[in-house]
Design brief:
eight-stranded mixed beta sheet
Length: 201
């Protein structure tokens, strides 16, 4: 079964909106390696339409310019790109297509096919739906040491909690913490259980 990984830049207070406005001062070699590690193994990418348009408006030009990020730009151009949108889309960026049918059903079927990892970058609405359906294997959160205090947050309100399991983490020199979560199981317990772990003065 193919693995789905999702990566997001996120503030301390959970904001993921417009990271291009606040995360670049924290971008260093460690973060570059983390981003490439998450996306570099993917041969398919899923996008919400807004995120796709941002990528399509930037990466083809970066590939053509031949700068330091041209290799990553070529990778993004070469791989299969599937865009989630309710409206009919037309594409100019190579290897792009629109997802057909129900998102959860289509992604469940996609995971069963042959191929490498399936990656997401940003695309908050898509990530939310796939998390709720238990389809994301690794959620990479690059937690920045800044509280934005306004903007769209990753987790919206719902009637039930979403337990996750910490798979690994690393702290960068900039103070960014790279956390990787997988699906978790709900835990039970109360104060009576917790107080057993309190030290006696």
């Amino acid at each position: 079964m193919r693995k789905i990984t999702a990566g997001l830049f996120i503030s301390l207070d959970g904001v993921v909106e417009d990271p291009q406005d606040w995360h670049f001062p924290y971008f260093n070699d460690e973060m570059g390696e983390a981003v490439q590690g998450q996306m570099g193994t993917a041969d398919t990418m899923l996008f919400g339409n807004t995120t796709y348009q941002g990528f399509a408006g930037a990466w083809p030009e970066r590939e053509a310019a031949g700068g330091p990020d041209a290799e990553m730009a070529k990778h993004f151009g070469d791989i299969r790109k599937i865009v989630v949108s309710r409206g009919k889309l037309e594409f100019t960026w190579r290897n792009s297509e629109q997802l057909e049918g129900d998102l959860i059903e289509a992604v469940t079927a996609l995971k069963q096919t042959e191929g490498g990892d399936i990656g997401l970058s940003g695309s908050v609405s898509v990530v939310r739906q796939l998390l709720n359906a238990g389809l994301i294997d690794e959620l990479h959160l690059l937690v920045h040491p800044i509280a934005m205090r306004k903007g769209t947050r990753l987790f919206d309100e719902a009637d039930t909690p979403l337990p996750l399991e910490l798979l690994r983490s690393a702290t960068f020199k900039t103070g960014v913490v790279h956390t990787v979560y997988g699906p978790g199981k709900a835990r039970e317990g109360g104060y009576e259980q917790a107080r057993e772990h309190l030290t006696q003065a």
